[in-house]
Amino acid sequence: MKIRHTLAATLAAALVSAAPAAQALDIVFDYSLDTTGFFTAAKRETLNQVASIFENNLTTSLAALTSVDFSTGLMDGYAGTALSVTNRNIAANTLVFYVGAVDLRDSTIGLAYVGTANPNRVNSSDNGFFSGWGGQMLFDNGVNWYYDSDIRSTETVAGTLDFATVAMHEMGHLFGLVHEGTVPGDNMYPTTNGTRNLFGVNDWLDMRTEGWAVASTTPNLNQVVVVSTPVPEPSAYALMLAGLAAVGLRARRRNTR
């Protein structure tokens, strides 16, 4: 019996050591606001790959939310649909990001709305911009976006804007990051030159400042989950201004308080 017990314990230990590490966060994208079919399979794959970077590098635990009501507003002068959801259950360690695409004004190419939730989770953020449940992101449907099948590569395509870069920027806002304190070259800087620029050391340090448990400020991008290899899509939209990635902080604050 002692030999059997020892063998069983050894096998159990081997199984535990061979199992993949538990993923702290699960980002769920809700496409119910995408009424025009903007988010094709290739676009969704890009969002999933960006989300996997956060999922693999954040170890903060979030409690489950039961029968939660949450909502976001819209900034004055912008198109889109304000979000209002009632009686939704959100599993532990899960964030829900609603996404849509509209014709944004001026040179804005992406927006993030944090909104409110009741009941809510508490994060030790120093600015209070983390909503606790997730949030809403809108992308400009008139931009000549660039997508590829693997965001780990460094891409520069003339006349396009990199969707993965802007998606990571807007997700950063939903995690509570703002533009204050960012410097040119950081992903959370409010402008982009159109080339790929994912989170760097300063961006991850800002995540720690906002109360998130960050495993590494230089995460191994080989952990990015690539579940398919969609062919990059030819753009169906006219090229717009290629300079700015997000709205000003002051306007954003009016909608996140």
What does this molecule look like?
This protein has 257 residues and is an alpha/beta fold. The radius of gyration is 20 Å and the shape is globular. The N terminus and C terminus are likely disordered. It comes from Roseateles hydrophilus. This is M12 family metallo-peptidase.
Strand content of the residues, in percent? 15-25%
**Neighbour order of strands in the largest sheet:** 1-4-7-5
Q: What is the H/E string? A: HEHEEEEEEEEHHH
Helix content: 10-25%
Q: How many helical stretches? A: 5
Note poorly predicted spans.
1-22, 229-257
Structural class: alpha/beta
Please report the distance between the alpha carbons of the first and last residues: 63 Å
Mean pLDDT across all amino acids: 79
Shape, please?
globular
Cα Rg = 20 Å
Total strand count, please? 9
The biggest beta sheet, please?
A: 4 strands, mixed
Organism: Roseateles hydrophilus
Protein name: M12 family metallo-peptidase
Topology:
Layout: H1 2-18, E1 26-30, H2 41-57, E2 65-72, E3 83-90, E4 94-102, E5 110-113, E6 116-118, E7 134-140, E8 145-146, E9 161-162, H3 163-174, H4 201-209, H5 249-256
Organism: Roseateles hydrophilus
Protein name: M12 family metallo-peptidase
Quick recap:
By secondary structure, this protein is of the alpha/beta class. The protein is built from five helices and nine strands; from the N terminus they run αβαββββββββααα.
